[in-house]
């Protein structure tokens, strides 16, 4: 499948290059339906340029096609609940509104970096919705799901994944939510 949102990069079929992604991402890609997996591309990048702004500037990828995956920790009583939220880089996740209510949590916040890394087995700055713990909901903003192509992390800072938003929406545990994110002003 040709990927078009790659800027100056060239994406390769992800299932043929599982060595470019984190171990849980590779396992999840290998277990995806063949039709979905064929739509996923991966490319190596300079790990020092993994953050969205630097990545987009260096490789000519539009911020409007870049999606960020953030790990949210919700709490109610003594119970913790985790979820991933996937939003376009031009927006911000509504952590204290939509996500907190979806988690049925009293409080919700971004999970601390060390906790997010330990729980996902991925590198901070490369965390991706593919390969997350099976018990976590993967909340996907409707704008991401509707995108013909988005770029996300590869589970490591040294790669990026290109795929249609519909593939993210088809992931196990995925929920498409209208209004999950708000435009950055």
Tell me the strand percentage band. Answer: 25-35%
> Total number of helical segments?
7
Overall number of domains: 1
Radius of gyration, in Å, reads 15 Å
Low-confidence stretches: none
Question: How would you spell out the order of helices and strands?
Answer: EHHEHEEEHEHEHEEHEE
Please estimate the helix content: 10-25%
CATH architecture identity: Alpha-Beta Complex
Q: Multimeric state of these chains?
A: single chain
**How many strands appear in the DSSP assignment?**
11
What is the global morphology?
globular
InterPro entries: YbaK/aa-tRNA-synt-asso_dom_sf (IPR036754), YbaK/aa-tRNA-synth-assoc-dom (IPR007214)
Domain YbaK/aminoacyl-tRNA synthetase-associated: 49-168
Protein name: YbaK/EbsC family protein
Organism: Microbacterium lacus
Concise structural overview:
This protein has helices spanning 23-31, 34-37, 52-59, 95-102, 113-120, 142-145, 165-169, and strands at residues 12-13, 41-44, 67-76, 79-88, 91-93, 107-110, 138-141, 150-153, 159-163, 174-177, 181-183. It is of the alpha+beta class and 185 residues long.
